[in-house]
Amino acid sequence: MAVTKMIKRAKNFAVGILSLIKGLTVTLKYCFKPAVTVQYPTQKLPMTERFRGLVGLRPEKCIVCLQCTKICPTACLAITSKQQEDKKKTLETFRYNMELCCFCGLCAQVCPTSAIIMTNVYEISVYDRKKLDINLLDAKKYDEWTAATIK
Q1: Cβ partners under 8 Å of residue 85, min gap 6
Q2: Beta bridge partners of 83
Q3: pTM
Q4: CA-to-CA distance for 113 and 137, rounded, in angstroms?
């Protein structure tokens, strides 16, 4: 009986040593390979071409068809327009509420003139919720997020 206990302990010890050696070989194998970690704030990976970030607008292409506001599931887009003498509509305001947006990209898909695009802007943080309601006609609408610096 004492012999079987000793054999069992020796067997457990050998299995423990083997598993330790296996673990150390995996660790040592990756120890000498170059790191694959991206140091995020200072290094950034490029976004894929199909990435859906914030909504962008090319106002010169917009024909005020209102298809984007009709298809938006969260109603985060609001457009006001005025009609000119030649019965053409022109944009007055184009509001985008990021707080409501689900980044589905339906507005960009349905736009017949490709006036709406999904940008690559993804680092969005604010202290005031009022900053999440953006006028897309403003040329400097995303400067706060695209020109972020690391402190």
Answers
A1: none
A2: 89
A3: 0.68
A4: 16
